[in-house]
Amino acid sequence: MRIAIGSDHAGFELKERLLARLTAQGHQIRDFGPNSQEPTDYADIAAPLAEAVVDGQHQLGIVICSNGVGVSIAANKVRGARAALCTDAWSARRAREHTDCNILALGSYVTDHPLASEIVDAFVESEFEGGRHVRRLAKLAAVEARHSKGHSELPDHALDEGNEREAEAELSPMA
Q1: Which of 60, 63, 120, 174 has the most CB atoms in a 10 Å sphere around its CB?
Q2: What order do you get walking across the sheet with 103-107 strand by strand?
Q3: Same domain, 99 and 155
Q4: pLDDT, tens digit, for every residue of 20-51?
Q5: Active-site residue identified among 9, 27, 86, 98
Q6: Distance in angstroms (rounded) separating the CA atoms of residues 156 and 153
């Protein structure tokens, strides 16, 4: 799988450990930085990473800061990004299965490496279930469209009942 990973300085050590682990598992990893523990603003890493995921350069993304909140907010500012801050494997699995999240946010000060590894595995190994969740994602896309410039990328007919397969294909490049 093609996975993007990045952090601020607070998440650097955890990022490095997860990067090595994911690479050893055979994933293709792009490191968005930083390359050291020098101060780095989380938005400078999370936003370009989210853009690359939304553009389809990577199937999933992982962003890390001290508590995971800053990177998740920054990533979610990118239209089409669905970043979830997860603190356990169940939440990570659920984020992918029900919400088709494409970016995992972690807090390095509150999540140690063994737990972070479990969370990442659950996130990477899970897939979007589709079905009833497509309707809910369409509603999220409509909210996003109302609060951003331009029009929704989802055509109006995709919201009609019975068009779940079409909506699923348009909402989730990973489906």
Answers
A1: 63
A2: 28-31, 2-7, 60-65, 103-107, 83-85
A3: no
A4: 999 999 999 999 999 999 999 999 999 999 99
A5: 98
A6: 9
Q: Mean pLDDT per 10-residue run, the chain (175 residues)?
A: 98 98 98 96 98 98 98 96 98 96 98 98 94 86 79 47 46 43
- Could you confirm whether 113 is annotated as catalytic? no
Quick one: 73 and 150 in the same domain? no
Q: What is the pTM of this model?
A: 0.83
> Looking at this protein, which amino acid is placed at residue 60?
L
Q: How far is CA 82 from the centre of its chain?
A: 5
Of 9, 27, 58, 65, the active-site residue reads: 65
Are residues 153 and 103 part of one domain? no
Find the farthest-apart pair of alpha carbons in the chain and give their distance in angstroms, rounded.
Answer: 52
CA proximity to 92, closest of 70, 65, 64, 124: 124
**Domain housing 69:** 2-125
Q: What is the mean pLDDT of the chain?
A: 88
Helices (H), the chain: 12-24, 42-54, 69-76, 89-99, 113-125, 132-146, 164-171
98 given a catalytic annotation: yes
